[in-house]
Amino acid sequence: MIKILLSRKLGELRWTQADLSRATGIRASTINEMYHELCERVNLEHLDLICEALDCDLDEIIVRIPNKTAKSDEPRKKLVHK
Predict the structure, then answer these.
(1) What is the overall mean pLDDT for the chain?
(2) Are the C-beta atoms of 62 and 5 separated by less than 8 Å?
(3) Rounded to an integer, what distance in angstroms lies between the CA atom of residue 21 and that of residue 17?
């Protein structure tokens, strides 16, 4: 599962969602969806702008937490390197 830690990072810096929107030019509604982890997709340019504005690395605002159960009943296919 992917977790967006934007609310935590903004809290640490005492920034509002509006502050981040103004600093990055990203729509307030987009910031809000990320803040509340409601988005299904994330724009890479937005992530770059957010990291730049907050002076942080990507791993400070987005992390992957391993799933407790597999999302699929099919076994995962392993890539064969030639």
Answers:
(1) 91
(2) yes
(3) 6
CA 32 → CA 6, 21, 64, 72, distances in Å?
Answer: 10, 9, 20, 30
- What's the chain look like in SS3? CEEECHHHHHHHHCCCHHHHHHHHCCCHHHHHHHHCCCCCCCCHHHHHHHHHHHCCCHHHCEEECCCCCCCCCCCCCCCCCC
14 CA to centre of own chain:
18
CB 49 within 8 A of CB 25: yes
pLDDT in tens, 11-41: 999 999 999 999 999 999 999 999 999 999 9
